[in-house]
Design a protein that fits this description.
With about 270 residues, this protein is an alpha/beta fold. Helices cover about 30% and strands about 20% of the residues. Helix 6 runs parallel beside helix 10.
Amino acid sequence: MARVVAVDDAADPRLADFRDLARADRRPDRPGGRGLVLAEGTVVVRRLLASPYPPRALLGVARRVEDLAPDLAGADVPAYVTDAATMAEVVGFHLNRGVLASADRAPAPDLAALLAGARRVALLEGVNDHENLGALFRNAAALGVDAVLVGPECADPLYRRSVRVSMGHVLRVPFATCGLAAAVTALRGAGFTLASLTPGGDPGALAGLAGHERVALMLGAEGPGLSDEALAAADVRVRIPMAGDVDSLNVATAAAVAFHATAGPVGSAS
């Protein structure tokens, strides 16, 4: 059971996981920093507590911590309760959602093991916007994508903004960080058809991918898209048919369309 601890001092050293989140040079979830995972709001904190990421602590106002009581029943972590003003002083801004949780990162999965039971995966290259990345993971969870391979020049999926925008689903969709060549080799070895999404692709080819047993959808950054190396590695180049003179979509939106087009039966949301 979580240990509920009342705090009234913003300088309390026990709150270090949550301090100065508005300062890029001090953020505990920043690349090269302490590497913590931060969840914000009751929905996302609940998903973190049910995830493979080992929780460390919570900080919140009393009402939000009380809302999480059933989820905290099996968690041996401190839940620091304070008022909104003290919490804002610790965090560096007013937090509308009223609760934060910190966790350590889970061990990175083995790439071969990650692909072993997968039917559809996303391979990302250069997706460096945290909000796009978070939205893409939420779409992957909703539309039954089995895993995400986070390739070169991508943002960190576990940055607080990505976790928040994903509504915590980045904590439940398995992913691995890998180089492009390693990802392509592993996917080919596992029998995946590699399909690149690009404005120069075939608009009639996307629907046909639903009949393939194993498909890897390759998605690139806003603007430049996939690199020449990634395009050359694809078995097929596809594009989403669009009306008028629109030639592309936001990467998270394009991913959702492609995930849906290649999906089999999708169960109810959780």
